[in-house]
Amino acid sequence: MKNLLLLSLILLISCGPQERVSKETFDEVNRNMEVKRLTEVEILQEAMVWGDSITLEAQAQLSAQLQEAIASQGVVGALDFCKINALPLIQGLEKEHGITLRRVSSRPRNPQDSPDAEELPLLDAYAYNAENNLPSDPSIQKVQGGEVFLYTQPILISSNLCLQCHGAPGKDVADATAKALKQLYPQDQATTYTLGELRGMWSLRLPKREVVKRM
Ligand code: HEC
Question: Which residue in 144, 120, 115 sits closest to 21, CA to CA?
Fold first, then answer.
């Protein structure tokens, strides 16, 4: 325990000011770890389980609502759903769990879904694996001096459904959809994907404090 504390302290001191964690949070996490006799490995494992379960929930909710929107309003109508409703759904999960949650892509439809400096190398690694037919598993990285875990998971073009809005215009993407996309997303880069291709990744930032609370 002493060693761990020392290591965390060194990490804290070596971070930039914007990455510094408040002493209060730091003490709280360490107190909880001590009381519960948790090891770093156990905490990482719990972060992985939690990340898996949140992405599963997000994916299920998005997919159910998307299919419902397509069934009731058609593909063009569902575009509005994605633009207007996907975000509140994600924000609801963020609030519920005390985390941040987003989807990023190297060819985003929404420009806000570009990867940041911490996400980019992970996205590149998933792209490399996909191109070389290697399997990709979810991953956990420590960021912000170890006080936050960055959980990522690849998102593939998993079905023909995706192609209606992310496939080849004129072939998979109907003309009316392509036209609506141009209006809603003038900078859209998220077409011409094929089945099985990497579309992007889930990116969750799980505060260590919240992970420890669950244990
Ligand atoms: C009805 C059209 C439609 C369908 C079907 C659809 N998407 Fe999308 N997708 C969108 C729109 C619109 C956005 C941008 C949402 C926003 O503005 O936040 C988007 C965004 C995304 C993003 C976030 C990254 C980015 O480009 O901004 C991912 C990842 C994604 N879609 C994956 C998928 C996958 C996987 C499927 C199939 C399971 C799928 N989509 C099906 C319309 C669709």
Answer: 144
Give the domain ranges of the chain: 2-213
pLDDT in tens, 110-135: 999 999 999 999 999 999 999 998 98
CB of 180 shorter than 6 A to ligand 1 = no
Q: Which atom of ligand 1 is nearest to 181's Cα?
A: 12
- Using the CB atoms, write b or e for 156-180: b if 16+ within 10 Å: bbeeeebbebbbeeeebbbeebbeb
How far apart CA 169 and CA 155 sit, in angstroms, is 21
pLDDT digit string (tens) for 172-208? 999 999 999 999 999 999 999 999 999 999 999 999 9
Closest CA relative to residue 201, chosen from 133, 111, 107: 107
Q: Answer yes or no: are the C-beta atoms of 105 and 116 closer than 8 Å.
A: no
Which residue's alpha carbon is nearest to atom 22 within ligand 1? 103
Q: How far apart are CA 63 and CA 48, in angstroms?
A: 22
**What is the distance in A from the centroid of ligand 1 to the CA of 166?**
7
